[in-house]
Amino acid sequence: xxxxxxxxxxxxxxxxxxxxxxxxxxxxxxxxxxxxxxxxxxxxxxxxxxxxxxxxxxxxxxxxxxxxxxxxxxxxxxxxxxxxxxxxxxxxxxxxxxxxxxxxxxxxxxxxxxxxxxxxxxxxxxxxxxxxxxxxxxxxxxxxxxxxxxxxxxxxxxxxxxxxxxxxxxxxxxxxxxxxxxxxxxxxxxxxxxxxxxxxxxxxxxxxxxxxxxxxxxxxxxxxxxxxx
Amino acid sequence: xxxxxxxxxxxxxxxxxxxxxxxxxxxxxxxxxxxxxxxxxxxxxxxxxxxxxxxxxxxxxxxxxxxxxxxxxxxxxxxxxxxxxxxxxxxxxxxxxxxxxxxxxxxxxxxxxxxxxxxxxxxxxxxxxxxxxxxxxxxxxxxxxxxxxxxxxxxxxxxxxxxxxxxxxxxxxxxxxxxxxxxxxxxxxxxxxxxxxxxxxxxxxxxxxxxxxxxxxxxxxxxxxxxxx
DNA sequence: GGACAACAGTGATGGGCATCACACAATCCG
DNA sequence: CGGATTGTGTGATGCCCATCACTGTTGTCC
Lengths: 229, 229
Known about the structure:
Two copies of one chain form a homodimer. Chain A is of the alpha+beta class. Chain A has two domains: 2-143, Jelly Rolls (Sandwich), CATH 2.60.120.10; 148-226, Arc Repressor Mutant, subunit A (Orthogonal Bundle). Chain A is 48% helix and 25% strand. Chain A is built from nine helices and twelve strands. A four-stranded antiparallel β-sheet of chain A has the order 1-8-3-6. The mean pLDDT of chain A is 91. At the A-B interface, helix 3 and helix 5 of A face helix 3 and helix 5 of B. Chain B binds a DNA duplex (30 and 30 nucleotides) through helix 8.
């Protein structure tokens, strides 16, 4: 239990919340574990709380009537998920599913509200999180509007590098996360086959490489350039 | 000056803030007027405050290197614009330009922060605004991912109806706002020519009509259907 | 009220990318 | 350890929609 507390404090502070508030919030949290593929909630569900990721990863996605899926984000440890329904009381706006086996901390909506009302700094903190989300959403829309397929794939890789990247020596970034081409395709909004083509072009050009199943960005600068609007 | 105050209270309450807080905020505001085409700020600028629209309209947009423009939103009276930079202290993430001559109220960042720290309910209110923005952004991305061109145009019209629509008799909605096809195209992310084709198909089918320059949604249900993901 | 500019309709053309269709790894598992 | 299931590479085909190239139409401002 103390271990959970410590984990949580780390998680929340990863997102930049001050220490004592983090422990306050941690006290509200209920630990839980999920298997890969587990559905935390689906679009339209009433929002009864949010989740902090301690370990593992989740995808946030929306699905079309035909069943095609568009990832809004893939989130790793230290992230908060499902906060939107907490803030405006409306229904969940997307699906959230576990990608890997994960350990989470669930925070009940009412408990959160009580705590936040007593500690307004929490609200400021949530604002900066939601703000970041909104900026990111706009960036993705911009990419979708202006960039051809390779640019969108580049953006996706860089985004994943933000979340899962470990720098290795000079300017090489290893994405320490098992990714399929379909995952990347669902993020970039493209067909899996074309993602394959783009990725191979880059592999041949030495822009990226694959190290025991993980993608490694050899020349992030080239990717950044490709993702310039 | 009293008139400004009253206007502002109405504006803010349009977005759902309680009366006394609205007047508190109104006291911070500095009135200003802008001509059509005036640039309030551009992406990358430091964010020194936000704007409430009393009269007129603004566009929020991003621009590609080639100069193509994508509207993120067209906002009318009662809306708040530029709040993002207020919340997380980062640079402006988009351009905001006046579409029509407009009367605005500018709220300085520091003044706002002082006021909000003293009245945390303001934070809750901002959260629900930003939350709504985020939901909307996700909806647009979903449309861009899943819907063919007509669906995206339908979504755009319905969105505009939210902001500028006046219901006229049974289930007809008049969009009381001068719109060019280019405007719609820039929102829907499509070429102006194709928007023209879609609009004419619908006009011929009696789904929409044009009444002295304003578009009127004759059968909003059909449009809603076309914009189902 | 005529001249100019901005907006609107419509065909023709072409390209980017989704889709289909498989061969070929790689990985999981009883 | 084969056999199945999942992920990957690569060509061929076609369609949606951007783009180009106009003509027609509506304003608007001396």
